[in-house]
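Section 5.1 Outputs to date
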Amino acid sequence: MQDLPYEIEQKRLNGTVIVQIKGRMESGPLDKITQTVLDEMVGEERKFLILDFSELRYISSLGIRMILDVKMNLQKRNKEMALVGVTSSILQVFHLLG
């Protein structure tokens, strides 16, 4: 079994789900992140998702696509998402993409 270049930790606080992603979101099995996030957001009481990138060192274009897919999925279910702890280099990539 291949070691993943990232770790995922999640916790719930009232109606908020906090998912921290550590390491590198790069080519490979990013579907585990997507599935973890969407599984955590099941339930009417879970309205807010916070993705904590404070320990994320790198994100590939595939990782960015995954974030956008999660955001669109949540919007369809009237749920909100925020990114926190984004480093300046990763933030610059998001700004370039709009």
